Amino acid sequence: MLAPIGPSNPLVLGSQSPRRRELLAGLRIPVEVYAIDVDETLVPGERPDAMATRLARQKGAAVLYGRNRDGLDGARWILCADTIVHLGGELLGKPRDEDDARRMMRLLAGRTHHVTTGFVLHGDDAFDAPAYAETTAVTFRAVSEDEVRRYAATSEGLDKAGGYAIQGLAAAFVERIEGSWANVVGLPVHRVVEALLRCEALEGFPP
Question: pTM value?
Answer without folding.
Answer: 0.91
